[in-house]
Amino acid sequence: MLLGSIIKSEQKRIRALLFDFDGVMADTMRYHLAAWEQVLSAHYGFHLDEMVVKLNEGRPVLQIAQAIFRAAAQPHTEELLRTCIAEKSLVFKHTHQAKVYPENRQIIERARSQGILVGLVTGTFRKNLALVLPEPWMQLFDVIITDGDTLQGKPFPDPYLAAAERLNVLPTECVAIENAPLGIQSAKAAGMVCIAVQTTLPEEHLKQADVIVATHAELLLHLTAGFFCGFPV
């Protein structure tokens, strides 16, 4: 279904556009996976099951680490997991070449020109955003919700509800952009329209979203048809 049809049929007024970070705002997932694999194989004696990370994306990183070790039937303590996370973060910091998807600049500029607020809602640590997003990008967002900002992370609705509250808009006035099932679950539980982008997972894992697009270029087209109608494509 087209985004514009959803908005019209449900008589929605869209006041905020909320982006997930990894795989939505920036092309980071390949570098996260490589960093996990490097640390796990070198220091912990097993290999990463990439689907575990992709299907748990959006959760706080400690929960992702728990899922990785459980899937590999590896014994672990919270202290060990936190050490592993720190090692992985260090590898990511020094090896990643992640960049923002280029269409996102145009999407944000169009939203802001229409008076639509823009937010970032992610399970990533705030300090790690700066590894990928330059400060001028950070200033484009009206709200940023990161790991630790809410009592519960995705797939619970808390992060998206917190973003709506800080923006002083209703959840039903928000469109969330996600790329993973737990993020979609979080947005839908918050009462938001959700668009899923197939950057890391195929359509079969994204069916809870209201709209599924293959690329950011297609995302821009859907948003243009949905509520950027005052702008030429």
Please provide a written account of the structure.
The structure is a single chain. The protein has a 6-stranded parallel β-sheet, sandwiched between helices. Helix 1 runs parallel beside helix 11 and helix 2 (29-44) packs across helix 5 (78-95). The protein folds into 2 domains: 3-28 and 99-226, 3-Layer(aba) Sandwich (Rossmann fold), CATH 3.40.50.1000; 29-95, DNA polymerase, domain 1, CATH 1.10.150.240. Strand 4, helix 10 (181-189) and strand 5 (193-197) form a beta-alpha-beta unit. The protein has 11 helices and 6 strands. It is α/β, with parallel strands linked by helices and 233 residues long. The model is unreliable at 229-233 (pLDDT under 50).
Structure keywords:
six-stranded parallel beta sheet, 11 helices, 233 residues, alpha/beta, DNA polymerase, domain 1, globular, single chain, Rossmann fold, 2 domains, disordered C terminus
Distance between the termini: 19 Å
Assess the beta-strand content as a share of residues.
5-15%
**CATH first level of the largest domain: which class?**
Alpha Beta
Mean pLDDT score: 91
- Spatially, the strands of the biggest sheet line up as 3-2-1-4-5-6
Helix content: 40-55%
In angstroms, what is the radius of gyration? 17 Å
H/I helix tally: 11
Oligomeric state of shown chains: single chain
